[in-house]
Structures are given as structure tokens and as C-alpha cells.
Design a protein that fits this description.
The protein is mostly helical and 183 residues long. It folds into two domains: 74 residues, Orthogonal Bundle (Rna Polymerase Sigma Factor, Chain: A); 85 residues, Winged helix-like DNA-binding domain superfamily/Winged helix DNA-binding domain (Arc Repressor Mutant, subunit A, Orthogonal Bundle). The chain contains eleven helices and no strands.
Length: 183
């Protein structure tokens, strides 16, 4: 592999860091754990440098690596707890009341999202937070689209039940998009 090709691959991967970090934060619920997960994913990706330049969708490949590393980590350390996200610095509100309501809602959604199963949380993060199509996500997760839709339905219904809002409120992607930038 030439130095120029390696530099292109490096730039391709580093451009994905913000998107991958948001995905990792959604899985781990901890900024430190997400950063460690991203670093391990990059180490694994760079160990397979020859593959990078042949990929059509490097972001999907990296998300797969991150998800697999996270699953491996959870299996090997079942009793380790992840701390919740501390940073809610991105909340934008025009007045104090809206800020308080936004922070309370965000904290509740984060806590309840963390309690969903890995499958449901991945589906919510990829479709509702990342804004990816059902077809893309089903393909990336290697599941039928019907299974993805079922996971999303169960995840949204469970979030609605736990948060105490009617399911119609959570069916709206706008609700989940409202906190997508915060995760």
C-alpha cells in the first residue's frame, strides 16, 4: 500500500469520527467508554488496511466493528456498569423553563434508552438518531427488514411506556431527533 493510499484511508476514517462517536455514545452511555470503543475500533480497522480502500460504505463497516466490540465487551464483563452521559452542554433553549424541561426530558430518555436491549438500542440509534433508512440498517445489522421494524416498534413502545408519554408522541421521529444532537 502506498503512502498516498494510506493517507486517503486515514482521511476517510477520521472524517467519520463524529458520527461514530455519537453511535458509540448511544451504545455505551459514557463519553470515556465511547472514546475507548472508538479507539479500539480504529485499531482493528487499521489492522485491516487493505480492506479500507475497497469498502463502499466505510461508516457501516466501522459501526459494525464498534457494535461487535461492544457486544464482546458486554459479554466478557457482564457486571461492569457504564456511567450515564454527563455532558448535556448542547441543549439549546430560549428560556430557563424550556431548558429545565429539555434537560429533564433528555435525562429521562437517556436513562430509559440505556435500559433497552442491545438490539433495540442499536435499532433506535441507527434509524431515529442517525436518520438512516430501514433498508440500510437492516442490511448493516444483517436482519430482515421486518425484524428491524419489530425492534423499532417494541423499543418506541417501551420508551413511551417508561417515559409516560402516549405512544403517538414517541412514534414521531421529530421527538427522537430533538435529542439526537444531544447524544
Amino acid at each position: 500500500m502506498t503512502a498516498l493510499a494510506l493517507k486517503d484511508d486515514y482521511h476517510t476514517l477520521t472524517a467519520l469520527i463524529p458520527e461514530l462517536r455519537r453511535f458509540a455514545l448511544g451504545l455505551t452511555r459514557s463519553a470515556d467508554a465511547a472514546d475507548d470503543l472508538i479507539q479500539r475500533a480504529f485499531e482493528r480497522a487499521l489492522a485491516h488496511r487493505d480492506t479500507i480502500s475497497t469498502l463502499e460504505e466505510p461508516a457501516g463497516w466501522m459501526r459494525s466493528i464498534i457494535r461487535n466490540l461492544w457486544i464482546d465487551e458486554k459479554r466478557s464483563a457482564r457486571d461492569r456498569l457504564s456511567s450515564p452521559l454527563e455532558s448535556d452542554q448542547h441543549i439549546a433553549a430560549e428560556d430557563t423553563e424550556r431548558t429545565v424541561i429539555a434537560r429533564a426530558t433528555l435525562a429521562k430518555v437517556r436513562a430509559e434508552l440505556a435500559l433497552l436491549s442491545e438490539d433495540q438500542r442499536s435499532a433506535i440509534m441507527l434509524v431515529c438518531v442517525e436518520g438512516r433508512s430501514y433498508q440500510e440498517v437492516a442490511s448493516e445489522l444483517r436482519i430482515p427488514i421486518g425484524t428491524l421494524m419489530s425492534r423499532l416498534y417494541r423499543a418506541r413502545s417501551e420508551l413511551a411506556r417508561r417515559i409516560g408519554h402516549g405512544s403517538a408522541h414517541l412514534w414521531s421521529l421529530q421527538f427522537l431527533w430533538s435529542f439526537s444532537a444531544l447524544i
